[in-house]
């Protein structure tokens, strides 16, 4: 999860129009592995049957449980950056139209915490290394309840957001837990908002967009009718994933992936000369958020282009962002980051709450001002290659390359882009949003997250206010939309 970035207009070199942009690349030209990866990138979904693994075992809980590789990166950054700003706090809102019984909601949450060990896990140091401590399931989990119906209607929304923002900005104690907060606020008769804030070490996009909203609303509906849970028992837990991943890493299962990243990121790396101002001597991790929406019609035209070019919406947005950054900087060699759902390749982990993401670096060469179809093919190949090698954390890559990051910048890249997973289909009377609350932290200079919805292509840009003004971010978003409109128009010839 997190925040989001925007791109701009650029001098698009127009391809000759002969009824189509350039010769189309049929998906049949892709290898079977790349076709599967392409499907993973479409909507952020995986193919459980094809990715099932028989070597994932349920592990003992009486031995120290290490953090997953990506989880450890979050933990280490939290030890320093988390004291400056809550950059790892993630928030969503679940809206309820109709009755909302706090006791039923608490029972639903208690069942989720029982089902998912990671939501009753804390972290501790043992022999100098962070480990997971899985706690027994609580008998009940209390939720703060606020009733704002006594306020004038003009003040209700502002007051609710203020309460949720206070939760989002409050740090978590990783050693004591819990690492999430839920707050129920009654806005008016039959209108309620449920605000979730969770530490990134226990959630990812699929957790907060799909699994948690689905389980919470499903359990609420059945418990309201005095029925039992219809959710199947989980056969594996996040600790099983962490131990399995560590075992594979020690066995050299990621060696080939490391070789790929040595080739991709070795030698002198480009440093994005944007924004142009003077940077603080060290990263501050402060964050602001700018929400925006682009027309659904534009998203549809971009997706139509993607179908013709065997590319996903993410790949088109990434190509547009690369073009924008080239226009802003004049640089040809550009690296933009994204968050790959690397840990969810296996069916055993598909329906678990937890942090299964891994930041990866996507490096493109825009020398010669290539026509957009050519650039898009390059971006597609880069993305597919990165996703097929997405198990290795950046910290391990940096160690292998003996990379010495600039303390003023995030290692390898300072701008990141992602497309949010699909939102779970919720029962009638329930809705989820995620652009309501700001945590006040930011991991990158600029992180743009897009969400393809029926009503619009929604977006939020999380940025560091020590580097950008809100006006500059708004202008960047405007530039990005203008560029995407130009791309959509040029591809229709």
Outline the structure in words:
With 493 residues, this protein is an alpha+beta fold. It is built from 13 helices and 14 strands. It has 2 domains: 27-43 and 268-425 and 435-490, Chloramphenicol Acetyltransferase (2-Layer Sandwich); 65-224, Chloramphenicol Acetyltransferase, CATH 3.30.559. The strands form 4 sheets. A 5-stranded mixed sheet has the order 5-6-7-2-12, sandwiched between helices. Strands 8-14-13-11 form a 4-stranded mixed sheet. A hairpin with a 2-residue loop joins strand 3 (121-126) and strand 4 (129-134). Helix 9 packs across helix 13 (470-490) and helix 10 (313-329) packs across helix 11 (372-387). The longest helix has 21 residues, at 470-490. The chain is globular and about 65 Å long. The chain starts with 31 loop residues before the first helix and ends with a helix.
The structural class is alpha+beta
Distance between the termini: 36 Å
Give the DSSP E fraction (strand runs of 2 or more residues): 15-25%
Helices, by number, come to: 13
DSSP E strands, number: 14
Q: Averaging pLDDT over every residue, what do you get?
A: 89
CATH homolog superfamily of the largest domain = Nonribosomal peptide synthetase, condensation domain
- Biggest sheet record: 5 strands, mixed
């Amino acid at each position: 999860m997190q925040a989001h970035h925007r791109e701009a207009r650029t001098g698009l070199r127009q391809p000759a129009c002969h009824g189509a942009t350039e010769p189309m690349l049929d998906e049949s030209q892709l290898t079977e592995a790349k076709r599967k990866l392409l499907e993973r990138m479409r909507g952020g979904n995986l193919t459980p049957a094809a990715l099932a693994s028989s070597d994932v075992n349920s592990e003992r809980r009486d031995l120290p449980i290490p953090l997953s590789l990506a989880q450890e990166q979050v933990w280490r950054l939290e030890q320093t950056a988390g004291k400056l700003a809550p950059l790892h706090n993630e928030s969503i809102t679940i809206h309820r139209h109709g009755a909302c019984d706090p006791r039923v909601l608490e029972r639903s949450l208690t069942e989720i915490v029982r089902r998912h060990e990671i939501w009753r896990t804390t972290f501790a140091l043992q022999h100098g290394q962070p480990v997971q401590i899985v706690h027994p399931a609580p008998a009940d989990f209390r939720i703060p309840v606020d009733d704002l119906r006594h306020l004038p209607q003009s003040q209700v929304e502002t007051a609710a957001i203020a309460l949720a923002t206070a939760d989002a900005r409050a740090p978590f104690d990783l050693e004591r837990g819990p690492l999430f907060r839920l707050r129920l606020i009654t806005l008016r008769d039959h209108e309620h908002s449920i605000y979730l804030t969770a530490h990134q070490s226990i959630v990812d996009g699929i957790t907060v967009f799909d699994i948690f909203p689905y389980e919470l609303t499903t359990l609420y509906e059945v418990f309201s009718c005095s029925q039992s849970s219809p959710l199947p028992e989980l056969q594996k837990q996040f600790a099983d994933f962490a131990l399995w991943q560590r075992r594979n890493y020690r066995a050299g299962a990621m060696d080939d992936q490391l070789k790929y990243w040595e080739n991709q990121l070795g030698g002198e790396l480009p440093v994005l000369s944007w924004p142009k101002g003077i940077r603080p001597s060290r990263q501050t991790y402060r964050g602001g958020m700018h929400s925006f929406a682009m027309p659904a019609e534009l998203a549809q035209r971009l997706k139509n282009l993607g179908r013709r070019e065997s590319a996903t919406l993410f790949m088109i947005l990434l190509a547009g962002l690369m073009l924008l950054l080239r226009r802003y900087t004049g640089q040809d060699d550009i690296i933009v980051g994204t968050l790959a759902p690397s840990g969810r390749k296996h069916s055993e982990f598909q329906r678990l709450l937890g942090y299964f993401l891994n930041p990866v670096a996507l490096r493109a060469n825009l020398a010669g001002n290539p026509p957009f179809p050519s650039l898009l093919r390059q971006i597609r190949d880069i993305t597919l290659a990165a996703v097929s090698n997405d198990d290795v954390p950046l910290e391990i890559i940096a160690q292998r390359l003996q990379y010495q990051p600039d303390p003023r910048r995030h290692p390898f890249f300072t701008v990141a882009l992602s497309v949010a997973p699909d939102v779970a289909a919720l029962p009638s009377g329930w809705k989820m949003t995620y652009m309501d609350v700001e945590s006040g932290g930011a991991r990158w200079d600029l992180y743009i997250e897009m969400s393809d919805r029926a009503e619009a292509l929604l977006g939020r840009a999380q940025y560091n206010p020590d580097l950008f003004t809100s006006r500059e971010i708004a202008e960047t978003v405007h530039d990005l939309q203008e560029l995407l409109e130009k791309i959509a128009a040029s591809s229709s010839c």
